Amino acid sequence: MNVNPVVAGTYMIVSAASAFGENTKAISCYTYDTYYRQHRTPAWAPIDENDPLQYWTLEDAGEGKFNIKATYEGNYITTATSMSATATATSFESLGSAQFKIDLGGKLHCNGWNWGGAGVSGPLTTYDDVKDSPSAWKLVKVEAPTFTHTLTVGDAGYATLMLAFDATIPAGAECYYAAEAIDAEGILNLTQVEGTVLPAKTPVIVKAAANNYEFTSATEAGTTIEGNLLSGTLYTKNVTPAGTAYVLSAPAGVVGLYIAELAEGAFLNNANKAYLDVTSSDAAASYSFNFDWNGTTGV
Fold this sequence. Notes:
By secondary structure, the chain is mostly beta strands.
């Protein structure tokens, strides 16, 4: 455990509150609203070294401050109850005994309520500067974690995918993105991801035989793909499309992208899944795929 002085690196941020027991609660990253499913927030959960959402990267923000970034999905803690794609410089002030108070412009403390539903019991607590209290935190230094996502491909032979991390494409799976203009006649031209790494936050359509496929974090960074027409979500959330939204489906056994069913202008997209959002006025009723790999085109 490397706790003082604070340095950039990957950590688990663990409550030092003696009332909760030694190292029993850690900051995790959970869905903020289980109904709308549109936000993330810091939440307090039982410490679990196998939970990728409990890993945080401290980035040096200068002047002795750090940005607290979710290692798995890349968003930052900005207040005690919110996260954002934009970082907030945070101070770590020693309380002694390898414990810290964390100040983001609002104090971070472990309270009795959290939006993820996995928090501690008991009344709300107020922030203080006391060791072994809900305001005190320990930083558990860890090695950069290895992430794994299991993708299940059904009998149809296709699935959509978007991951938060650069991942090695497993044998037997081919990943495609939509980089070309959409065909008004209902054909979506797809281009295969080159190499063996699927870049982080790149929504793709996976073509593979029915099976489970393990996408494991790569040791090298993937090459950023520009102009991808596909979109995706890292966690389950309601999406309000800019135009007409399409999701992977196979009604009557015909695989393609079909118009998503909306409720109050939005549709629920599952975690790590891709979709297509067509803003043109000539959007088709559905889209079939036109694959292009190694110079050969097939439908």
